[in-house]
C-alpha cells in the first residue's frame, strides 16, 4: 500500500532553497515526503517559490507511487542548473497533498531548515 510506503507531513519550521547566492524559495508551509528507505524530501508550495527563476524542462519521469514528474531548470547567476527541481502536476490520489508543490535536489542547490 502506498499509504504505508509514503508518508507526507508538515515540515517543521521554515525552509529555504538557495542557488548561486539567490533565495529561490522560503516557506513555513513546506511538506516533508518520506518514501521507503529514501531520505525525506521537502516540497515547497509554489506560492513560496520565486517561479521567475524556474524554467520548465522537457524532462519527465514516472513514479509508480506518485505519478508523472515534470522538471524545472534554474537560471542562476552562475549559469543554468538543469533539471534541478520537480513537481507532480497531477499526483496520484494517495499523494495528492504534493500537488502545487515543487521539490529540489539538495546536492545541486542548498535546501535547508532556517
Automatic annotation (TrEMBL):
Organism: Pontivivens insulae
InterPro entries hit by this protein: DUF427, DUF427_sf
One matching Pfam family: NTP_transf_9
Domain DUF427, first and last residues per copy: 16-107
PANTHER family per UniProt: BLR5716 PROTEIN, DUF427 DOMAIN PROTEIN (AFU_ORTHOLOGUE AFUA_3G02220)
Full protein name: DUF427 domain-containing protein
Amino acid at each position: 500500500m502506498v499509504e504505508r510506503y509514503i508518508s507526507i507531513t508538515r515540515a517543521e519550521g521554515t525552509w529555504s532553497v538557495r542557488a548561486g547566492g539567490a533565495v529561490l524559495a522560503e516557506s513555513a508551509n513546506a511538506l516533508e515526503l518520506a518514501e521507503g528507505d529514501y531520505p525525506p524530501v521537502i516540497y515547497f508550495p509554489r506560492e513560496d517559490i520565486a517561479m521567475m527563476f524556474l524554467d520548465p524542462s522537457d524532462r519527465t519521469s514516472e513514479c509508480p507511487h506518485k505519478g508523472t514528474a515534470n522538471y524545472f531548470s534554474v537560471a542562476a547567476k552562475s549559469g543554468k542548473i538543469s533539471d534541478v527541481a520537480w513537481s507532480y502536476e497531477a499526483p496520484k490520489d494517495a499523494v495528492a497533498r504534493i500537488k502545487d508543490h515543487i521539490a529540489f535536489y539538495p546536492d545541486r542547490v542548498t535546501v535547508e531548515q532556517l
